[in-house]
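pasting for ref
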Amino acid sequence: MKSFKILILIVAFILLPDFIHAQCAMCRAVLETGENQEVAEGINNGIVYLMAVPYILIAVLGYFIFKRMK
């Protein structure tokens, strides 16, 4: 049962980025006009990268704290 939950989580994380594109109001406005698709995609990717970096840093810090406490 635990491995099934982990599998569902992995699949969700793999598919999630496809569902969250163009959620920024400015990005959505650019996408709806149909002009400058490259700019809007670049902004969306930048938002995803900026959002991911703090979580990665916290995960690495948590890992080192866990290893030190063990």
